[in-house]
Structure formats: structure tokens, C-alpha cells
Amino acid sequence: MSAQRVVIGVDSSTQSTKALAVDVETGAVLGEGRAEHAVTAGAGRESDPEQWWRALGEAVAGTGWADRAAACSIAGQQHGLVTLDAAGRPVRPALLWNDVRSAPQAADLAAAFGAAELARRTGSVPTAAFTAAKWAWLHANERAAADRVAAVRLPHDFLTERLTGEAVTDRGDASGTGWWGLDGYDRDVLGRIGLDPGLLPRVLPPGAPAGVVRAGMPLREGALVATGTGDNMAAALGLGLTPGRPVLSLGTSGTVYAVGRTRPSDPSGTVAGFADALGRWLPLACTLNCTLAVDRFAALVGRDREDVEQGGTVVVLPHLDGERTPDLPHASGLVHGLRHDTTPGQLLQAAYDGAAHALLAALDDVLRAGGESPAPDEPLLLIGGGARGRAWQRTVLRLSGRAVQVPEARELVALGAAAQASALLTGEPADAVARRWRTAAGRVLDPVTRDDDTLERITSTLRRARALQEAPPGER
Predict the structure, then answer these.
(1) DSSP label of 442
(2) What SS3 class is residue 18?
(3) What is the sign, positive or negative, of the torsion defined by CA atoms of 94, 286, 109, 334?
(4) Cα–Cα distance measured from residue 344 to residue 342, given in angstroms and rounded to the nearest whole number
(5) Rounded-to-integer distance, Cα 31 and Cα 416, Å
(6) Quick check: is 231 catalytic?
């Protein structure tokens, strides 16, 4: 009997690091570990990369397989700006994807090139979330820190380099920076924001190993390390996603995406033209406010998050941290249509509706951007922390009018990383590994009639409130 082969997949997300030890042949999860992260509050959203490294060690040790795994891979939160000095230590805390202080720099970049030209060059019109805008913010506001920077990394790059000593990244995560295009790093964009391309990692081709684990690391010395990728790209791998199958992910942020066969380029900025972790594309729309925003409304009205009620005409735009889709970085939460007979449960349901609206409105645009025709009969894959909540499920069913499939597998980002690590051992494409593991299997919820009245009420409120939502604080 051949020896059991085990890999470890890591998800270094905004709030925590999760690690799974997975059997290469069966996909069975043999061990799990988790460690929390701290994120600043207030005007910015920052996190110390050194705590990610400590959390990686804790989470990997928690699987029970750290000293026996044959390979590993790390998926990480997208867009974060990690700045390192010549010794490889952080110059300052990382600027995270949901830090909107860089909104003016994103607007300046779009004005300098034009939205259509940036979409052609990099696949996306950058918002405050994109790494290019964050570097421009740092360069403008903390020049002394910027001048000390000897290397610029994304979160998963930082962790992979600590393990292997190799300064590498992958095309999926690189496509979320705003400075990577079809021909590699865009020197015109880098020149505009004052970033030396020599500070950036090498972009490896899909399926290439990043290196091996060095001595003294949290994993077995000599274990293979895959390139890793961004969290959304890893989740697509974890589902074994095939072109045209739509996914709605409900987490700290909300995303809707699908694997596409053609390179996206949306000058409106609604769809980000990301690459996937293989050789295709991952058009995606993202909102900053999703499960945490709804949970905040539940706390405000003193209700359990499942304690919703239908009816009423109240509209909630839960833009508590600004917003990315639509691009309203200065927005705050808005409640419209409140009446004497509005109940706390109806207000909470309106928060769910407002959080889901932008994602579902972008669904067909996402599919078309990747060269796929919208197929209303195809079940929508529902994943992320909110996917198993009954109120979330009912909201998505009601506002989409589609069947919804909820995979049984959990921690799909870490599973995608594990599939990427397994591919180094088996020679298969990583998505084929996940399909062999049947990670997308789960019950299908039958469709219901789409609630067009609620959708139109939210759309109308957003349109009329846009001037208020666009105004910077202090000018409302």
C-alpha cells in the first residue's frame, strides 16, 4: 500500500488564518487550524504582516500535519499593500483592501489614463481597494516610509516568500494590483504612481512551484510550495469552477464572479477583469459591505441575524465602510422609507436586501465580461460565511430568481490552496483536483419568483441618493 500523501492549504484572510490538512487522493480534511488577526478601526484599515506570519504558524500547527505534509500553498486576501525593508521586515502595517483612504489616488489614476484605457491595459478601472492606489497614497502621505521600501508584496506573496525565500507571485493575485497587464507589469502605470518595478516579485506561470520550505519554518523542510494566489481565485479552484458557472460569496466583503474564457475589460468599473490562478480569467464584482454590515444592523435593532420579517417598504443601503460596487468610497449607511409601522425585523431584512442588491445586479455583467452568456437556469453557487444562513439563502433566492446551490464543503479558499498544492504532486490542473474531490457538491434550493419591486425600490433609492453618497464627509 502506498503512503498517504497529505498537503496543507492556507487561507490568510482579513480576520484570521485558516489551514486545512487534506488527503491528496480523496480530498478528505484530516486536520484544521485557525488563528485570529487584528485589524485597525477608524479612517484606515491596517494589519501587521508579522501577525499573519505568527497566525500561519499557529494554524498550520493546529492541523497536526505540519511536519509531514508533502506540499503546501497559501491563498491570501487580495489587494493588500505589504511594504518591506532591505531585511524583509515590514516598513509599516499593511494597507488592506477595505482601506478607502486611497480613493483620491484611484480617481487621479483613472483621470490620468482614462477609465477605458486602464481597463484595456490592466483589465480593471482601479478603485480605492486596488494596490496601485494604496502605493500612490503611501507615496503622497508617508514619503519617508515609502523611501525605505525595498520590496512591495501582496499578502500571500509575503507569506510564501517567508517560507521559501523566493520573491514570486501568481497572475491571479497580480491582476488585482492595478499595475499588471497582458504583457506583465505596466511600466507606465508604475511610473505614474512612483513605484520602481524592481521592487516587485516575479510572476510565475500557472502550475509552477514557488520553491520549497526552508529550514526553521513552520512546515517540514523541503516540502513543495505552490505559487499561491488571491482568495477569490483560490475559491474558484476550490470549487473546481468551469467557465460560465456563477458564484456568489458572502463574507466580510461580497463577491460575484465566474471563470471566463476571454479577458474582461469593463470601462464602467463595475466588473474587475481579474485573471484566475490557471490560464483563464475571473471577472468579478465586489462590495465592501456584506455580512459584517448586516450583523451590525442586527445589533442595532437588537435582533438575532436570522430574525427577519418580510413586508414594508423601507430601504437600507448598508454602506458602513464606504462602498466599492457601486464606487462610493465616501458613502455611509442610509435608511430610507422608515414608517411608524416599520418593524425591527423588516429593517433587518432591508439590510440583507441592500447588501445583496449590488452583487446580483452585476451578475449578468460578470458573465458577459468573461465571454459567457447568462444562463438563468444554472444554479448560483452560494459560498462564504453567510452561505449557510437561512436569511441569506432566502434573500438571494428572492432577489435573484435563480436556483441556489450551497456546497457542503467549507473553507473553500483553503481547499483551493490545497488543490493547488496537490497539483504539484499529481501533475493535474488544480481545478481538476477539486472536481475529483467533489467540493462543489451540495443541496440545490429551488428558485422562487424574483422580487422585482424590492430591486427597483433599492435601485431608485440609490440613484436619488447618489449625490449625498458621493460627497466626502463634512460636505453632506
Answers:
(1) E
(2) strand
(3) negative
(4) 7
(5) 16
(6) yes
Q: What is the pLDDT along the chain (476 residues), one digit of tens a residue?
A: 568 999 999 999 999 999 999 999 999 999 999 999 999 987 799 999 999 999 999 999 999 999 999 999 999 999 999 999 999 999 999 999 999 999 999 999 999 999 999 999 999 999 999 999 999 999 999 999 999 999 999 999 999 999 999 999 999 999 999 999 988 999 999 999 999 999 999 999 999 999 999 999 999 999 999 999 999 999 999 999 999 899 999 998 899 999 999 999 899 989 999 999 999 999 999 998 999 999 999 999 999 999 999 999 999 999 998 898 888 888 999 999 999 999 999 999 999 999 999 999 999 899 888 888 777 788 999 999 999 999 999 999 999 999 999 999 989 999 999 999 999 999 999 999 999 999 999 999 999 999 999 999 999 999 999 888 887 766 66
Whole-number Å distance between alpha carbons of 274 and 180 = 10
- Angular region, 258: left φ>0, alpha ψ -120 to 50, beta rest: beta
E-state strands within 77-208: 82-84, 94-95, 151-153, 168-170, 180-181, 184-185, 202-204
The answer to whether the predicted template modeling score (pTM) of the entire model surpasses 0.85 is yes
| Alpha carbon distance 193, 137 (integer Å) | 9
Q: Which of 11, 99, 173, 231 is catalytic?
A: 231
